[in-house]
Amino acid sequence: MRAISARSSRAVSYMGEFECSDNTGAKVVYLITVFGHKTKRRQQPSAGIGDMLNIVVKKGKPEMRKKIFRAVVIRTKKGMRRANGLHLKFDNNAVVIVDNDGIPKATEIKGCVPKEVGERWPKIVGLASTIV
After folding, report:
1. Has residue 2 been placed in a domain?
2. Domain annotation covers residue 1
3. What is the count of structural domains for the chain?
C-alpha cells in the first residue's frame, strides 16, 4: 500500500462499528483485522482513513450477513490532519466493500470521500459523489 500525504490517526479499534457507505446491501459492519498493521504482540488492531480491513457484516441483506469481506475506510469520526494544517472530521465511521485488489464491489458511494483515499485507492474516488 502507498503512503498518504495526511497524518491519519488510527481511530477505530478491534470490533469497532462502521457504516457501509455503498450500495452492496450491507448496512453495519464490524472490524476484525487490519491489513499491513504491525504492532506489538497481543495489541489489538486499529484502523484509520485509507486502510484496508477484514470486516464482518452484522446488519444488511440476509445473503451478506455473517460473512467476511474486505473493505477500505473512507471516513472516521476522529478525522485527520492535512499537511497545510486543515483538520477533517466526519459524522460517522464509514467503509466501502472491495475485492482483493481494492476495486469496489458497489456501483455508487454515498457521502463524501477525502482526496487522500484517492492517493491509495483511485477506483474508490472514481465512484464517489463528493470529494473533499
Report:
1. no
2. no
3. 1
CATH number at residue 43: 2.40.150.20
The mean pLDDT of the chain is: 91
CA angle 125, 59, 1 (to 5 degrees): 35
Distance CA 132, CA 106 (A): 20
In a domain, 36, yes or no: yes
Provide the β-strand partners of residue 108: none
14 assigned to some structural domain: yes
Residues 24, 64 contacting (CB under 8 angstroms):
yes
pLDDT (average), residues 71-97: 92
Between CA 27 and CA 11 the distance in angstroms is 20
Q: What phi, psi does 119 have (nearest 5°)?
A: -65, -35
Q: Which helix (H) or strand (E) holds 126?
A: helix 122-127
Q: Which residues does residue 82 pair with via DSSP β-bridges, in sequence order? A: none
Q: 11-69, pLDDT tens digit by residue?
A: 888 888 999 999 999 999 999 999 988 888 888 888 999 999 999 999 999 999 999 99
Contact 56, 67 (CB under 8 A): yes
Residue range(s) defining the domain that contains residue 56: 7-131
